[in-house]
Design brief:
Layout: H1 4-15, E1 17-23, E2 29-34, H2 37-40, H3 43-59, E3 66-70, H4 75-85, E4 89-93, E5 106-108, E6 115-123, H5 127-139, E7 142-151, H6 157-165, E8 170-175, H7 176-202
Parallel strand pairs: 3-4, 3-6, 6-7, 7-8
Antiparallel strand pairs: 1-2, 4-5
Helix pairs in contact: 1-3, 1-7, 3-4, 5-6
Length: 203
């Protein structure tokens, strides 16, 4: 029986992780690519994401009023956590102020002075998270914590986010290494199953 976290990392390994030669948005290259949205927008994946993030926030005692992040990597996470918690409100940070209406950059929950957690799906350089932290503070939120679903452990992402978020802590639910190991384990299990079926047919 898998725990919620184990089921989520397995889903990420199966749906979001690919090995190969990829060019990253940061300009670098990598032997793997991870697209968390194929998991966070999956029906079961959204449930698991909401549960894991909300449990982490509760365990850390952040006493947050809302959760938000830069569109669009954060969008599914924000909605999942808001729905799961039933009490954490959601907000989204536009990449630029909209050019019509009120011209606001923060959409959704907008209570100045509120305690908020900034989230993102993947942290590579941390630029999206850093931008969301700055926008949240500029609006008048108090940032009490920052979280990402998967930390790539490269390009200085953790250092950049920790520096921008201080004194608020930064938490990665999983590292890319966690997802890679699970991806390889799932593939190995699949190969063993196929092998057993082939042997059975031979007999």
């Amino acid at each position: 029986m898998f725990s919620t976290r184990q089921e989520l990392v397995r889903l990420l390994a199966m749906k979001s992780f690919r090995l190969g030669d990829f060019k990253l948005s940061s300009g670098g290259r990598s032997d793997y690519y991870i697209d968390c949205r194929t998991t966070t927008l999956d029906a079961r994946g959204a449930q698991l994401t909401g549960q894991v993030f909300f449990e982490e926030i509760q365990q850390r005692g952040w006493k947050a009023d809302a959760i938000g992040g830069l569109t669009m990597g954060a969008d599914p996470i924000v909605v999942a956590v808001a729905v799961t918690s039933g009490k954490l409100n959601g907000f989204l940070v536009r990449k630029a102020e909209k050019q019509h209406g009120t011209g606001q950059r923060i959409e959704g929950y907008r209570e100045k002075g509120a305690r908020v957690v900034i989230v993102d799906d993947v942290c590579t350089t941390g630029a999206s998270t850093v931008e969301a932290i700055a926008a949240a503070r500029e609006f008048g939120f108090e940032v009490v914590g920052t979280m990402c679903l998967v930390e790539r452990e490269e390009a200085g992402g953790r250092v950049n986010v920790e520096k921008a978020a201080a004194p608020a802590p930064f938490v990665a639910v999983f590292t890319a290494g966690d997802v890679r190991r699970e991806h390889l384990a799932v593939n190995e299990e699949s190969s063993l199953v196929v092998g057993r079926r082939s042997s059975a047919r031979e007999y």
